[in-house]
Design a protein that fits this description.
It is a single-pass membrane protein. With 512 residues, this protein is mostly beta strands. The protein is built from four helices and 38 strands. A hairpin with a 3-residue loop joins strand 28 and strand 29.
């Protein structure tokens, strides 16, 4: 199948397109040293802060591995093994801005094998983390993706998937970096996110290029090739490129031999048949010079008669179909041979659905009115599939709705928020055997409610007469509270209702 092009001329945008004006924003970014007790500054002058203020679960652990070059690897936060539970970081962000997320994982030992677990961002499944190969090589594992913030908080979560292993997830470091409005702005982040496959500085034999050369701390991996590598010095202006690559990536290149094409297998892994974002960067190694060549990816023309000058340029496609091992083929159409300086490849994956806003807001309101709640009540209450909050059951239909609350015997205290009445798809409420206090809120709008178990708490006040107007209600258990007044007649006389009001309450007209 021919690659899908979303913009005329192979989805290419060239150098010198004006950058999008960045309207005023707060610029939220985070460098979190997970499990650390105090802030620290690395060799690049970047400050790393403890992750504790942003997560409510897990425990810190210090690794005994000696000689670590990256101090953020010396500690980690480990989470318990609780299948189908997601443990989340909640980070204030600017809505609708794009963020680069890079979690780092270093288990410190290959025995026992490190756990495998899921990464989730704002209800969207990102990928599974498997660090086994990197641990055997003695290195850390980095994952990177670009997401658009969907609200004023971005949630980054580690999901416990019992299909993988039987131990809990962990994390050593987390970077969440706000990108400039121009960076990767050709992607529709309302429907997709981007997961990094490769970011490469061709011809480089040095270290990974990152901050301060790259202001967003993107990692540009070296790609040595003694036969074709060339070094030069350029005055390329990064601000002229939408993706704002660091100028130094144009100082190395792979150059074809005279009158021959340059053929690269890149990225260096086999890819699934899918859509990918591909960006390639070029700059002539000779001052005030240019060369022209065709760019093919596998058997398809990516760009014809591309003219690279010493000022540099970039071409990219937003949805290019790739499969298996990929070859970049640069074929000369001028005297000077073709070259390439850098490249990026991202996989595109769909943004997941979220719980309907009304239900999500109601659950957040309930969360604020309760104490001793489960530590996984962060992020979307229902999504992604299989990762609903503890005690919450959802229905994934046209809208994603909360249909059942089962918090019985969970040690919860506090009061019931009136907003529970906005969960209009509820069929079951089981809150028995806790320490709930306050009154029973108005549940009139819960027109599908069949079972309401509030027994063995500390609820006070009277029983709302409106409970008798909920037609599907079949079970009402209120015993062992501190309720008083008269039991409404419409509950006493309601046909088909199994009710338990006694013992433990102080009704003026005992219904027992």
């Amino acid at each position: 199948m021919r690659p899908l092009l979303t913009v005329v001329a192979a989805a290419v945008l060239l150098l010198l397109i004006p950058l999008a004006a960045g309207q005023g924003f707060r610029g939220f970014s985070y460098l979190l040293d997970c499990g650390a007790a105090a802030s620290s500054t690395d060799t690049r002058g970047l400050r790393w802060d403890p992750d504790g203020p942003y997560v409510s679960a897990g425990s810190a652990r210090t690794l005994s591995v000696q000689g670590l070059l990256d101090p953020t690897l010396a500690s980690l936060r480990g989470f318990p093994y609780r299948p189908a539970v997601k443990f989340c970081y909640a980070l204030p962000v600017d809505p609708n801005r794009r963020y680069l997320l890079r979690p780092t994982f270093f288990y410190g030992s290959s025995s026992p094998p490190p756990p495998v677990f899921d990464l989730i961002v704002d209800g969207t499944f990102w990928t599974a983390v498997d660090t086994a190969d990197d641990i055997l090589a003695g290195s850390a594992s980095h994952y990177e993706a670009v997401f658009q913030a969907r609200g004023r908080n971005l949630t980054f979560c580690l999901g416990v998937n019992s299909n993988y292993t039987t131990s809990g997830p962990f994390i050593n470091a987390l970077q969440v970096i706000q990108l400039h409005d121009s960076v990767y702005n050709a992607t529709d982040f309302g429907s997709s996110a981007m997961g990094l496959i490769a970011r490469t500085k061709f011809g480089s034999t040095g270290d990974v290029e990152r901050y301060p050369d790259d202001s967003f701390d993107r990692y540009w991996q070296p790609f040595p090739d003694n036969k074709h590598a060339v070094s030069s010095t350029h005055n390329v202006t990064s601000a002229d490129f939408w993706n704002l690559p660091p100028p130094d990536v144009f100082n190395t290149a792979l150059v074809a031999e005279q009158n021959a094409p340059l053929v690269l297998q890149w990225p260096p892994i086999s890819l699934q048949n899918d859509s990918y974002y591909v960006a390639l960067y070029f700059a002539d190694t000779l001052a005030d010079s240019s060369r022209t060549f065709d760019v093919n990816i596998n058997d398809y023309q990516f760009y014809k008669d591309l003219t690279a000058t010493s000022a540099g340029l970039s071409v990219f496609a937003t949805q290019w179909i790739l499969s298996g091992l990929t070859r970049i083929i640069l074929t000369p159409t001028s005297v000077l041979p073709p070259l390439i300086n850098a490249g990026e490849v991202f996989g595109l994956f769909p943004i997941g659905r979220l719980t309907i806003t009304r239900d999500a807001l109601a659950m957040e309101s309930m969360k604020r009115s309760l104490q001793n709640i489960p530590d996984d009540w962060i992020g979307d209450p229902c999504m992604p599939h299989g990762y609903a909050w503890t005690g919450v059951t959802c229905l994934e239909g046209k809208n994603i709705r909360v249909i059942s609350l089962n918090f019985s015997s969970m040690g919860i205290s506090g009061s019931l928020s009136p907003d529970i009445g906005n969960l209009t798809a509820l069929t079951d409420i089981f809150l028995a055997n806790n320490s709930l206090s306050g009154s029973i809120p108005d549940l009139t709008k819960l027109g599908k409610l069949q079972r309401l178990h509030l027994n063995d708490n500390k609820l006070n006040g009277t029983i709302p007469q409106t409970l008798g107007t909920i037609q599907p209600l079949r079970e009402l258990f209120l015993q062992n509270n501190e309720l008083g007044g008269a039991v409404p007649l419409n509950l006493l006389n309601k046909a088909g209702l199994t009710r338990k009001f006694c013992p433990g309450n102080q009704f003026s007209q005992p219904p027992c």
